[in-house]
Each structure stands twice: as structure tokens, then as C-alpha cells.
Write a structure and sequence with these properties.
FAD/NAD(P)-binding domain; 11 helices; 21 strands; globular; binds flavin-adenine dinucleotide
């Protein structure tokens, strides 16, 4: 395979990781006139829907990058949240009023394609198959190493392709942004712990074509200690995620699959068998009217609740899943990560413009991001039900905070509408 012609990287900001957060960070930095290069160890953008919705404030952020229409053209609007227990609807909450805007459901792969195309259109270098392996904060700059990865055929009896480090490329940057996901090399090199701040949540996730009329609704079902959620996707595909009891053997299942859709064997994970999906639908959401068509994707995913105690130091800072993880229902990790991408770009601009020698704006970025996540995880105080709040919301107040499709002020506004003060 022919390597990239780039021999060494000199840039104002190096972004490690071209997931949604890293690519958004690069777009925000570029829009502010800051030179940026993105490297990613993977061969290209992801191939699946993973974090599949954009919150109202994320849509505004994408609008500022001129990308709102592009994502809207490939997604479906989600105009209401409907809360249920097993047998009936408890409350419907229209989005788009009282400070809570509508969301957009769009597969993460589609979003990543749009972001990668926007980087290409702006001429921002995005080097795939380039892994950040090492760096040193030198005070006024960051120096380090990126390895270009090569695919080679290995094995004799059963030959297969695997990835190897090929050419090593030195880099120099004024700043490094680690948006390199939950196994972040940046975080580990900085020796920042990734502390558990809540119990892990395991979900059996199914995507299938349904003949139910598209309802543009996020359905959240809370009962018997489990959460189930339905997000609509374009082309009448729906995603149902059913919380299951913890399976500790699942750590390796949380691999980002970049080739084909991820299938986890039904034999290895009985919770993914087709008949089990039928059981979940009958048992947990008997009111769901859709006839099940093609089952496109199923996966058992363990979502941990983790948070760093600090977002970085000096000239190296984290954003996105590199710094935090949470459950899947409200798609908060990716959306909050995109908010961080906007904030870190503003902080870098301020730092570079004002000639700060100390990274004061970045320290503020880190503190603000930490505040937001402590709030999301309810670390600084439990949710409180207002007088007159219904039993359903009272009973689920704590869990609700991490299931709503919003963060920050949008989350507080949604909470207020169901009588919960987060
Ligand atoms: C199977 C699965 C299902 C999911 N389902 C949901 C869901 O239902 N709801 C939800 O909210 N979220 C879900 N998520 C999580 C969601 O995908 C993430 O929150 C989101 O992708 C975070 O974006 P990010 O850019 O921070 O990190 P990522 O998307 O993880 O991107 C990190 C990037 O960094 C690259 N990278 C890693 N190491 C290096 C290195 N050393 N050098 C260079 N590049 C590197 C990786 O290749 C990757 O492209 C799911 C994730 C997975 C894996």
C-alpha cells in the first residue's frame, strides 16, 4: 500500500481522532483561522449509526459551520419524547417549545461522512491510518510522533490482513487536542485516570425495518429497573435498545467497527437472538405496533459511566469520549463532546490571540466541561421532584437525567417540564 507523502507534521493544532468530536473541533478551529491537522488510526469514517441523534443545540452549532441543511437532508426530525411504562403511555413531551428544540436522528456514519467532506472542502488535512503514539509538552509547543499504519498480509495456514506501524512521522504543534475516543492514548500518556462515576449499563441494541408509520418520536420506557428506548432512523428503520442485566464478558464488544456492520454472534450472546428481540418487544413494549422487517444490526454494548478528574494541562487537552462516557439513550456523550469541540476551539483562539503563555482559556474550558459532566452524572446533587410531580417521574428522577436528549440548560428545561429539578 502506498503511504501518505507527508513526512513530518507541522501545524498549529494537532487533533488526534477523527470521530465526530475531533472532526468538529477541527472545523471550529479552521473556521477561526487556526491551522489544524487531524490524524486518525482508522482507515476511514465509521460505518454504523452508534450515537444516532443530534440535540437541538448541536444543530445550532452545525448551523454555524454551514452544515445544518446537510445533516437535515440525511436525517429525520424527532419532535417529541413519549414516556411509557410497560402497558401505557405516561406523558408525551413535544420538543420545540419552552427552550427545548427538536432533535435530529441521523446515523453517526452519515454525520461523520458529512464532517469529513466539510474538512476536505476546506482543505484541512485529515490523515487516516495515522496513529498518535507519543508526545511531550515542551511548554511553548508539543512535540511527538505519529505512526503511519500499513495493512499487511500475515499468517500461513490462515492468511489474513492486519495493521502494522509503518513510517514514523515526527510532529510539532502549538497544541494537541486528544479526541481519540474511550481508549484515548492522549489521556493515558497524560496519566489522567478515567474514574467510574456510575454503574455500567448494558444494552441489547437492534435495528430493523418496521412497517409502523414513522412517528418522529423518541420513546422511553422505564419499568422494573430497566430502560428501553426507541429512536426512529431514516427509511423506516427503527432502533430499539433494551437494557439487560450486566454481562461482564462484554468489554471487548465495545469495539468501534469500521468495516462492516457489527454483528455479535447469537450463540455467544443469547440476548441478541432474533426470538429474544421478539420477546423484548412483546414483554417490554407490547403497545409497539410495528411489524418487524429486516434486522439490519444487533449488538450488545456495555456503556460505562466514566469521567476524568481534569480535561488536560498545559498544551494538551481532551474532548469527547476520551474524557467521558455515559449511557446511550440520550446520546449525551457525543453531543456534549461536540459542544466541547466548539468551546475548545474558542479557548484556543483566545489563547493564541492574546498571546497567553499560561493556558488560562483552556483551564476554563476544562473546568466548565467538568462542571457540565458532574451535573450530567448528578455528582453534585440529586434530582428533586417539584410538588405535584407524577409518581412515574418521581420514581425515575435520577435515571431520567442521563436518558433525555439534551445537556446543560436544555436538560434543565426538559426536567422542568416533567416536574424534576436536576
Ligand atoms: C458499538 C457502539 C455503539 C454505540 N451506541 C451509542 C448509542 O446508542 N448512543 C450514544 O449516545 N452513543 C453510542 N456510542 C458512543 C458514541 O459512538 C460516542 O459517544 C461517539 O462516537 C464519541 O465521539 P468521539 O469523537 O469522542 O470518539 P470516537 O467516535 O470514538 O472517535 C475517536 C477516534 O479516535 C481514533 N483514534 C483512537 N486512537 C487513536 C490514536 N492513537 N491516534 C489517532 N486516532 C485515534 C479512532 O479511530 C476514532 O475514529 C456507541 C459506540 C459504540 C462503539
Amino acid at each position: 500500500m502506498k503511504g501518505s507523502p507527508v513526512k513530518k507534521i507541522e501545524t498549529e493544532v494537532l487533533v488526534a481522532g477523527a470521530g465526530p468530536v475531533g472532526m468538529c473541533a477541527a472545523l471550529f478551529l479552521d473556521a477561526k483561522g487556526i491551522g489544524v491537522t487531524v490524524v486518525d488510526s482508522a482507515p476511514g469514517v465509521g460505518t454504523h449509526s452508534y450515537g444516532l441523534a443530534l440535540h437541538a443545540d448541536t444543530l445550532e452549532r452545525l448551523e454555524s459551520l454551514g452544515l445544518r441543511r446537510k445533516v437535515e437532508a440525511r436525517g429525520v426530525p424527532v419532535r417529541a419524547i413519549r414516556f411509557h411504562d410497560r402497558s401505557e403511555e405516561v406523558q408525551s413531551l413535544p420538543l420545540g417549545e419552552d427552550g427545548t428544540g427538536a432533535c435530529l436522528s441521523i446515523g453517526q456514519a452519515e454525520l461523520e461522512e458529512i464532517l469529513a467532506a466539510a474538512l476536505r472542502a476546506r482543505g484541512v488535512p485529515l490523515l487516516w491510518q495515522h496513529a498518535l503514539t507519543d508526545f511531550r509538552d515542551e511548554g511553548q509547543s508539543v512535540q511527538g510522533r505519529v505512526d503511519e499504519l500499513e495493512q499487511r498480509l500475515i499468517g500461513y495456514a490462515s492468511a489474513h490482513m492486519d495493521w502494522f506501524a509503518g513510517r514514523t512521522k515526527p510532529f510539532t504543534a502549538r497544541l494537541l487536542v486528544g479526541a481519540d475516543g474511550h481508549r484515548s492514548v492522549t489521556r493515558r500518556r497524560l496519566k489522567i485516570p478515567f474514574e467510574e462515576v456510575g454503574t455500567p449499563e448494558t444494552f441489547a441494541v437492534f435495528e430493523f425495518k418496521s412497517d409502523a408509520p414513522p412517528d418522529e418520536v423518541l420513546h422511553i420506557v422505564m419499568e422494573r429497573g430497566h430502560v428501553s428506548a426507541h429512536w426512529p432512523l431514516p427509511h423506516n428503520v427503527c432502533r430499539w435498545s433494551f437494557e439487560v442485566d450486566d454481562c461482564s464478558a462484554l468489554r471487548s464488544a465495545r469495539e468501534k467497527d469500521r468495516d462492516l456492520a457489527q454483528w455479535v454472534g447469537g450463540l455467544a450472546y443469547p440476548a441478541l437472538r432474533e426470538e429474544v428481540l421478539g420477546h423484548f418487544l412483546d414483554d417490554r413494549v407490547p403497545w409497539f405496533a410495528g411489524e418487524r422487517g429486516n434486522l439490519y444490526w444487533r449488538s450488545l454494548v456495555r456503556f460505562e459511566n466514566r469521567l476524568v478528574p481534569r480535561f488536560g494541562a498545559g498544551r494538551v487537552w481532551l474532548a469527547g469520549d476520551a474524557a467521558h462516557l455515559t449511557g446511550p439513550v440520550g446520546i449525551q456523550s457525543m453531543n456534549q463532546g461536540i459542544a466541547e469541540a466548539g468551546r475548545i476551539a474558542a479557548a484556543v483562539k483566545e489563547m493564541f490571540d492574546d498571546g497567553h503563555t499560561e493556558p488560562v482559556p483552556l483551564i476554563e474550558y476544562g473546568n466548565e466541561s467538568l462542571r457540565q459532566w458532574r451535573f450530567l452524572h448528578g455528582i453534585d446533587g440529586p434530582a428533586a421532584a417539584a410538588e405535584g410531580t407524577g409518581e412515574y417521574f418521581k420514581a425515575h428522577a435520577a435515571r431520567l437525567r442521563r436518558c433525555l436528549p439534551a445537556t446543560g440548560t436544555g436538560l434543565r428545561a426538559l426536567g422542568e417540564r416533567v416536574g424534576i429539578d436536576f
